[in-house]
Amino acid sequence: MLKTLLVAAAAGAAAAAPAAGPRHLVGVPPSLAPSYSGATFRCLSDKAAAPIPIARVNDEFCDCADGSDEPGTSACAKGRLYCPQRGFRGKFVPSQLVNDGICDCCDGADEPAGKVSCKDTCAVDGEKYRKERAEAIQKAEEGARLRAELAKAGQAAAATRAARIAELKAQLAAATAAKEGAQKLVDAEEAKEAEVDAQRKAAAEKDGGRAAALAALGMTGLDKDGVVAVLLEHVKATNTGQQLADALKAKAAAGQLPGVATDFAPSWQEDPAAPAPFHSDAGNAARDKLSAARSEESRVQGELSSAEEEGKVDFGPDSAFFKLKGATLELKVNQYTYKAEPFGEAKQDFTSLGRFSGWGTKKDAAGAEVADYSAMKFSGGQSCWNGPQRSFTLHFSCGAKDELLSVQEDEKCVYSGRATTPAACDGKAARALQLELDGEGDALEPATRTEL
Length: 452
Ligand code: MAN
Known about the structure:
The protein is an alpha+beta fold and 452 residues long. It has helices spanning 2-12, 122-206, 210-217, 224-238, 241-253, 281-312, 427-437, 446-451; strands at residues 40-41, 52-53, 80-83, 91-94, 329-333, 336-340, 345-348, 351-363, 369-380, 391-398, 403-411, 414-421. Helix content is 40%, strand content 17%. An 8-stranded mixed beta sheet has the order 5-6-7-8-9-10-12-11, with no helix packed on it. It has a two-stranded antiparallel ribbon with strand order 1-2. Strands 3-4 form a two-stranded antiparallel sheet. α1 (2-12) runs antiparallel to α2, α2 runs antiparallel to α6 (281-312) and α2 runs antiparallel to α7 (427-437). It is rod-shaped, with a radius of gyration of 46 Å. Alpha-D-mannopyranose binds next to loops.
């Protein structure tokens, strides 16, 4: 199609003829023609100025401060000439370019004196322009469609999250109640155990610790002779008779014999007077239950906290950026591999360039500071030697894919990158492009619309 057009254009690119028609209409856009059609003319932006005869329009002499009396000559510094550029789109050029011997308009309308013969390339230029614009519109529309999907997903996730938070709050209340119930049970069982401990302690104190020592040795129930028999057998087997004799001698010297040794302390238990606390089966079961209830409570609390944290994140006005959470945008630049996780961390190899710290800001039309959803900030990264903590700004623009396109170190340890994502596409962009193509944008003349 383009090839055909080019061939057609090469054959048909006629030399543009200098503007025909009355002199006073040269360089006048169709929309302003009525102002230039009477016997007199009034400067366009100075209605108080006295009207001048129409013959003084385009007479190479500047009468109006706004240059409106000389649209087709270079007599006024502020003047501007309108090139219709049929087949393309009308445009204004500064009047200094009029008749300067250089073709500035594709139809040669800026050279009305015919000093130079301009080729009319408007058909080809127009076709190329329309093709590029159509592609740009298609891309913008596709981007807007993808963004709408992302926004839908982000909003659905937000709704699911809100429901989950409510559910988790209820679960947390139940888990806390279960934990408190289990705690009560433990308290009751432990009170019983403490009673047993107290009884044992009282009994141990009564016999000077003997019962506890025998219990620790597993010798409860043996009578005195039985204990002596075991002791002698052990002394024989371990060849510790001398030690026993020495001990007995020492005791005797201290006037503690005859009698029964009451300070017997097996080496594996330092203080037989304080035996291991008593743990009942019911107590153990209650403690297990409490420990399970505590883990459940902290699991629910953890999930709730992270859901609430996520709920606080600004995923954009329509939540379109939500889907970028968890993604990793990666690019190798020279010796480094950069990784940026939106809403997470940015890295240069293993060096942290900072964690997500919010969006950039900009001033809105009313001058108020608002979030700039095209700049994602990461800060508090690894400290730079003799410098700041590293930081990274990720600049998003509209694109069909999530892709990191470039990364640079703007100044020492201050990094920035460019990435595309459909989340940055703007539905309005497609419309603006369409309007521009339709000739409604810029300073275009509506008249050109019908000519396209
Ligand atoms: C490393 C990298 C560089 C940085 C220097 C600063 O080499 O992180 O990007 O400029 O440290 O010392």
